[in-house]
Design a protein that fits this description.
Layout (H helix, E strand, L loop, with lengths): L4 H32 L7 E5 L6 E5 L1 H21 L5 H23 L13 H21 L29 E6 L1 H20 L2 H16 L2 E7 L2 E6 L7 E4 L3 E9 L1 H5 L3 E5 L2 E5 L3 E8 L4 E5 L3 H15 L3
Parallel strand pairs: 9-11
Antiparallel strand pairs: 1-2, 3-4, 4-5, 5-6, 7-10, 8-9, 10-11
Helix pairs in contact: 1-2, 1-3, 1-4, 2-3, 3-4, 5-6
Length: about 325
């Protein structure tokens, strides 16, 4: 897959949409802090028990202000750096959820004579989720303002010869692939989330766990090509999985993928008319669906998988 200047210019238009909700959430958080500063106890209740939502952790007012700002800033920077066609809605939902939790935490502390009596009822999570849903709708609407990329003319690489299978022969191909960097990052975020449950404000713990758990699950996957089509699933658990049925495959090919240039980063990536699970730069298996969409996964020995899938597609069509 070669670099397309349209992709770079388009990301430049999408990134402000991904950054905007975090700037709005940060502005709202700062405004509430300024207006309520004199009515907030010092320290603030910032961590709450899972049973009953009673306060069991406290942070100074200044520390809580800095922590909230850093959390929103870091999440905004991550979403902005990895901005793609479908990302604004997710960015807006994340900003709405985090911003809602932070404001609700401040509201719960408002005019509290003793921060040990502050509680965070389960309804706070429901309210934050509702804010996230409304923000996601706003982000989706904003993303519609960004023009679609032109549809790619063909799959990213040239088709490979078919495998020589007899009429009654059955064959399958499977290989594990992963990323050491993503594994370490996911494990670090997961561990940080577990530690934050005890030592940090709970919005921080939720944010770390929400990123670390799915990130670690997708850091190592098993790619399988057989009579069912193409299947990609987490190597340890096998669920959730991505499957492209053989009936929907038009052809398979191999190409060299540059993670940042071609897909804007690592992990599960969504582009116009193209999706991919990118764990590294290098050789990738690309399947083209009958509706023209493409799915790519970076994996070694992709040539064998592509040849097998092309053979099975030809057999299906009676060629």
């Amino acid at each position: 897959m070669t670099s397309d200047p349209r992709h770079t210019s388009r990301r430049g238009r999408v990134r402000p949409l991904a950054a905007l909700p975090f700037l709005l959430a940060l502005a709202a958080y700062a405004t509430v802090l300024v207006l309520w500063w004199g009515r907030l106890p010092d320290p603030l209740a910032t961590h709450f028990s899972a049973a009953g939502g009673r306060a069991d952790g406290w942070t100074s007012r200044t520390g809580a202000a800095v922590t909230g700002a850093v959390l929103l800033g870091a999440a905004g920077a991550a979403w902005t750096a990895l901005a793609e066609r479908r990302s604004p809605a997710g960015a807006w939902a994340t900003a709405g959820f985090l911003g809602g939790l932070l404001v609700l935490m401040l509201h719960g502390n408002l005019d509290a004579a003793d921060p040990r009596t502050v509680a965070a009822p389960p309804s706070h999570l429901a309210v934050a989720a509702a804010v996230a849903g409304l923000a996601a709708l706003a982000g989706w609407a904003a993303s519609r303002l960004v023009p679609e990329e032109e549809r790619p003319a063909a799959a990213g690489g040239e088709p490979y010869e078919r495998l020589p299978l007899g009429p009654g022969e059955v064959a399958g191909w499977s290989r594990d692939t992963g990323s050491g960097v993503l594994t370490a990052l996911g494990a670090g975020l997961l561990l940080g989330g577990l530690v934050a449950l005890v030592l940090a404000p709970w919005p921080v713990a939720l944010a770390l766990l929400a990123v670390g758990v799915p990130g670690l699950a997708l850091a190592r996957v098993r790619v399988t090509a057989d009579r069912r089509g193409l299947t990609v699933a987490p190597a340890p658990a096998g669920r959730p999985r991505i499957r492209v049925p053989l009936d929907e495959i038009e052809s398979a090919s191999v190409c060299e993928v540059r993670a940042v240039t071609d897909f804007g980063g690592w992990g599960y990536r969504v582009r116009a008319h193209r999706t991919g699970l990118v764990l590294r730069s290098g050789e990738a298996l690309v399947v083209r669906r009958s509706d023209g969409r493409e799915f790519a996964v970076t994996v070694a020995d992709a040539r064998t998988a592509a040849a097998l899938l092309n053979t099975l597609v030809a057999r299906r069509e009676g060629d």
